[in-house]
Write a structure and sequence with these properties.
Blueprint lengths: L7 H10 L3 E2 L5 H7 L31 E2 L2
Parallel strand pairs: 1-2
Length: 69
């Protein structure tokens, strides 16, 4: 990605999720990383594991389905 080489699948994944996502201040490189096609389609997993660190929170649905802060 650093040299400008991004798979078409990653760009298609990003195009598909963008209408439902508020990326905040994330730049294009961060957005493409989150939509990386090499992970079978840019995976986002949410759940609670007792004792695991908290990295985010689930909130009632607002204007966007996914909000990156």
């Amino acid at each position: 990605m650093r040299d400008g080489f991004v798979s078409g699948g990653s760009r298609r994944n990003l195009d598909w999720v963008t209408p439902w996502t508020d990326f905040g201040a994330a730049g294009e490189a961060e957005r493409l990383l989150l939509a990386d096609a090499q992970t079978s389609g840019g995976l986002l997993v949410a759940g609670e594991v007792p004792g695991a660190p908290v990295v985010g929170e689930l909130l009632p649905r607002g204007e966007h389905r996914v909000v990156l802060r």
